[in-house]
UniProtKB/TrEMBL annotation:
SUPFAM superfamilies: Globin-like. Keywords: Heme, Iron, Metal-binding, Transport. InterPro entries: Globin-like_sf, Globin/Proto, Hemoglobin_trunc. One of its GO terms (molecular function) is oxygen binding. It comes from the Bacteria. Heme binds at residue 63. It comes from Oceanicella actignis. This is Hemoglobin. The keyword Ion transport does not apply. It holds the Pfam family Bac_globin.
Length: 150
């Protein structure tokens, strides 16, 4: 009887869930890495976002590796990212207009590097995380006890 071809190994804390997400979204590590690299190429060349990143990041490879782990954790539930993004975004001077441009470049890159289901999946998550990051940094910038801006 013919044996099923062995599945390629996945680097994940939850391999079964990761495989299910890969099947549902058409995403895998190679696509995520292509998305991340192409996205940050655009970000670095962008007149509004480029300087904000350049002021913080001089060695890009560790940042890109961290972002591949982040997106792999978000999209494929591999559990590879262990960080705290909120404090990293404090003091960057990023306003909502910067987040909107970030999202525009992210949507564009997702469409170029991912199948439609995968692109929709990562874009929806990016939009949610951008909103919550923005809210967190706005809140942190307000004096203690000030009413939230609704
Ligand atoms: C205006 C938009 C944004 C700007 C200017 C920005 C800028 C940056 C910068 C400069 C860093 C490096 C910080 C450092 O190492 O000191 C960073 C890290 C990071 N960013 Fe953003 N970012 C933006 C939006 C986002 C969004 C929307 C997400 C998620 C969907 C995100 C996820 C991350 C993560 C996961 C890290 C790594 C944090 C760590 O060190 O663990 N960023 N970002």
């Amino acid at each position: 009887m013919a044996q099923d071809a062995p599945l390629p190994p996945v680097r994940s804390a939850r391999p079964a869930q990761t495989r299910a997400l890969m099947a549902r979204t058409g995403l895998d590590e190679a696509r995520i890495e292509a998305l991340v690299r192409r996205f940050y190429d655009k970000v670095r060349a962008d007149p509004e976002l480029g300087p904000i990143f350049a002021a913080r990041i001089s060695d890009w490879e560790p940042h890109l590796a961290r972002m591949v782990d982040f997106w792999s954790s978000v999209a494929l539930m591999t559990g590879r990212y262990h960080g705290a993004p909120v404090p990293r975004h404090m003091g960057l001077g990023a306003r909502w207009a910067h987040f909107a441009r970030w999202l525009e470049l992210f949507r564009e890159t997702a469409a170029e590097t991912c199948p439609p289901e995968g692109a929709a999946f990562v874009v929806e998550r990016a939009e949610r995380i951008a909103r919550s990051l923005h809210m967190a940094i706005e809140d942190a910038g307000r004096p203690a006890g000030a009413a939230p801006r609704l």
